Amino acid sequence: MRGVELAATINSDTASRAESLVAAMGVRPTLATVLVGDDPASVTYVRMKRRRCEQLGLGTRHVGLPAETCTSELVDTISGLSHDAAVHGILLQHPMGAHIDERAAFDAVAPRKDVDGVTSASFAAMALGQPGFASCTPGGIIRLLDHYGVELAGRHAVVVGRSPILGKPMAALLLGRDATVTVCHSRTRDLDAHLAGADLVVAAVGRPRLVHGGALKPGAVVVDAGYNPGNVGDVDFDSAARRASFITPVPGGVGPMTIAVLLAQTVDAAQQQLLVQSAISR
User: Fold this and answer.
1) Domain 136-254 has CATH 3.40.228.10
2) Residue 93 catalytic?
3) From the UniProt record, which GO molecular function terms apply (predicted)?
4) Is 234 known to be catalytic?
5) DSSP assignment letter at 205
6) Which of 7, 48, 109, 208 has the fewest CB atoms within 10 Å around its CB?
7) φ, ψ for residue 119 (rounded to 5)?
8) Residue range 28-59, pLDDT digits in tens
9) Is 49 a catalytic residue?
């Protein structure tokens, strides 16, 4: 299951919708990126996302903060962007440093601008099946599974990983699609025994080649949401591909979907905010 082609389709639609907003309302959907410090990988990720915004006709605004920025200063910065009508979506790049309360920082993002799906409000919406923005990687995975016609209702899904931005929201979205979900993590005993019964495996733990083909049920669908140095995922691709009916490669599988969903949700956010503003002004 390659995400490159589907992401290109989503990006084309995003660009078209953004241009329509500019033509109709004179407003360009704008994503603000916030980066604390100068971690090379984070700098690269933010630059890539801003470049893609520009390619699709979205506006960007970047706020770079020094590594020693404290939680209250970061929260104030994000709150300012949340109240800025010219900003429609906010992306807070992580990690931010051990001295920062990440949850407080994420939750400073107004839910209507949480296009990365990282706030407590967004997680609650995903868990309860209410309107809101999905976490981008889990949301992208759901779109990819739908695109390839993978049935989720009644299937046994095993999510390996329980992070608040990937594993937990992934489990919530799968439950919302009527899958039976098992969440495994670092304290799980005998991971392979859980994998053996899975119709769908989502590996999202950040450990290279943790999931191997010998542990998989023949015909399982395997989604590798991990990315480790050397373009290595959380799944041993060669052995898993011999057992799986569908499998995502690394790179070229889940990664392109994450950015595509982020930018699509930025345009969604702009449309929703403009509707509210229009209703208020009447």
Assistant:
1) no
2) yes
3) methenyltetrahydrofolate cyclohydrolase activity; methylenetetrahydrofolate dehydrogenase (NADP+) activity
4) no
5) S
6) 48
7) -80, 165
8) 999 999 999 999 989 999 999 999 999 999 99
9) yes
